[in-house]
Amino acid sequence: MSTALVQYTAAAVSDRGRKRPSNEDAFGYSVEHGVFLVCDGMGGAAAGEIASSLAVDETMRLLAAEVVGAPTPEQAEKAICAANLAIYARSQRNPKLAGMGTTLVALIAGERQVWILNVGDSRGYRLRNGKLDQITQDHSLVEEQVRMGRMNRSEAQRSPLRNVITRALGTQGQVTADIFALEAEPGDLYLLCSDGLTRELSDPLIESLLRLELPLDELCARLVGAANKAGGHDNITCLLVKAG
After folding, report:
1. In what order do the strands lie in the sheet with 131-134?
2. Rg of the chain on CA atoms, in Å
């Protein structure tokens, strides 16, 4: 493990896609505090947009505005639980927002370590030495069937149930995020994204695009453009974090 302190840069792009009338994705980040997150909302009318925005606002408030220095993974867990409660309480007060929820994938960057937390099927990846690895595991019905050996990958991609997620913020009073601890090395590139990207682009294609020697904002634009070219059936959000 490198003993050098790691510095980070970031960029993000969010796009409505070609089929949806609005964008229910949201993102937020603070390089200064080492907090980066992407959310993909769900629910009727504008409920998805409200859920994802609430999740981003509450998590960023607790981790960037009220924490001195880089937050700990324990603080990140508490912030995600607080965001979950805020969304759930809002939906309980307003019948039009009943059942709204959102995915969340977050990266907490320390000086020599990063933590990726997720709820739902928005994903976290790491590109290291040109090789892309998916760090998170989707909380979705078909992915859980694949992990149990009851469905293969091609069946999962064709399944009419592939949109069903098994864990989300705001749908219940409590939620548990998965947490992945990783050593940070200069040159690592992390991708946080909504499923509007991963439903359209294969991991090998994402890897090939991330290998391009381009500024982070241009890489985000390339990813979103490729997803739109492939169909753009959903909102698309990409957030890239580079360890320097």
Report:
1. 8-15, 236-243, 189-193, 123-128, 131-134
2. 17
Q: Are 126 and 189 in contact (CB under 8 A)?
A: yes
The pTM for the full model equals 0.94
Does residue 1 sit within a domain?
A: no
Decide if 177 is inside a domain. yes
Range of the domain at 98: 8-243
Indicate the number of domains in the chain.
Answer: 1
The CATH number of residue 202's host domain is 3.60.40.10
Close Cβ partners of 91 (under 8 Å, ≥ 6 residues apart): 47, 51, 97, 98, 99, 100, 170
Q: What is the pLDDT of residues 80-111, one digit of tens each?
A: 999 999 999 999 999 999 999 999 999 999 98
145-155 pLDDT per residue, tens: 888 888 888 88
Residue 218 lies in a domain: yes
